[in-house]
Amino acid sequence: MRLASCALLPLNDRGEAQRPYNLIRRPKADDRVGKSIDSTANSQSGRVAELTLSMAGLDEPHGIAMIKTGLYRLEQLSSSAKTRGFFGGTRRVSVTLYEKLDGMKEAQEWAEQILFSYCDARGIYKRTYACRFDQFDDMAIDRLGQAFPASRTLTMHDIGVSDARTACDLFHKLAARFPHLNYYASDYEPSLMMLRSGKGRTVVTLNKKGEAIEIVVPPFVFNLIKPENFLLYPVNYVVFLFARATVLRRALAKYRAGKIKPSPLVLFCPAARDLAASDSRFHLLEYDLLKPHTLPCRVDVVRVMNVLNSSYFDPQQLSIAVGHIFESLAIGGLLIVGSNDAAGSEVRGGIYRKLSQGFQELAKSGADHDAHRTIVGFAATQRDGV
């Protein structure tokens, strides 16, 4: 279960053009906003026309801009000004650069920029910011201190951690209070594969299922799940059709024939991977909240931040997710849930205790979050035997 350490923005909802993303000023956007308008990368043929008419987003110019290139080489990340397209809009930074950022100037800001525009095969973004939940985490730690003695072993599962930088923040705080800590940090699709061809210039990025997520065809970077608004960028549209029909098909054929060896791409941040390698109490996992938990035991605490949102899950899926969380918790265990916008903004969340047949709310922050009613209304179908 443990990962080896190593092992779109088109017009906003008001129809207004926004200024390009500034690496110093963090945008007020959800960590993981939006759902895919296409189920998988391999089911996109025949839907490009629908996509071009339905896409709407941020940072695009008014009118036809013709062309927008991407950022796919590390030397292109010399300045935040590089993210601004010649004709306006924000240039997409390839996810393939993520693992190359360590040690460079403003590496954290560039990592946030990459994850800001990257989304997984479900169409969910992995947006995150360091120290995002500091005040809420402090409240949660105080509540944990009241519920559990510091001398006991505390087992925690932190779900949906994106690149796990916020998990690192919380782990260090908790470890100071609970020295016997077992901390599991998990995310959906934290590892990808890169297929390089054409002397390494062309890169196709796949998930573990073999679904294509991104294609780099210099000087363009295409996300296959959240394509650009091709009505604004007709040149991109033409190249995208070629890349999808020819470059992607050839790369996949060579990969399946064993002629291309994939390179791993891990989206957990270097700090999290270093921590997992150096501290046996911290573990990195892949986990899908819509599936039953696979941890070796029931846990004392489950933390789910910016995940249980109505923008990601319909009511039935929220109920399934809450049911899986309930089954993973020991009796008396705590569920910590919350969502916010930019780092430091108020968290809409709560802390709940698991009872034999449901959850009891213990503490609240801000307004009700999207999953609150589902959690307090949850009733176990059979008595918990733990």
Throw out a few tags for this protein.
386 residues, Rossmann fold, 8 helices, disordered N terminus, disordered C terminus
Fraction of residues in helix = 10-25%
Number of domains: 2
Question: What percent strand?
Answer: 15-25%
> pLDDT under 50 segments (min length 5)?
1-63, 382-386
Query: How many β strands by DSSP?
Result: 12
Calculate the terminal CA-CA distance, rounded to whole Å. 24 Å
Written as H for each helix and E for each strand, in order along the chain, the element string is HHHEHEEEEEHEHEEHEEEH
Widest sheet: strand ordering: 8-2-1-9-10-11-12
Report the sheet with the most strands, covering strand number, pairing sense and barrel closure: 7 strands, mixed
Structure annotation, total helices: 8
CATH class bucket of the largest domain = Alpha Beta
> What structural category arises from helix and sheet content?
alpha/beta
CATH topology of the largest domain: Rossmann fold
- Rounded Rg: 21 Å
- Architecture (CATH level 2) name of the largest domain: 3-Layer(aba) Sandwich
Would you kindly provide a written description of the structure presented here, covering whatever features stand out?
There is one protein chain. This protein has 386 residues and is of the alpha/beta class. It folds into 2 domains: 41-124 and 191-256, no CATH class; 134-187 and 268-376, Rossmann fold. The chain contains 8 helices and 12 strands. It has a 7-stranded mixed β-sheet. Strands 6-5-4-3-7 form a 5-stranded antiparallel β-sheet, covered by helices on one side. α3 (134-147) runs parallel beside α4. The two termini are 24 Å apart. The model is unreliable at 1-63 and 382-386 (pLDDT under 50).
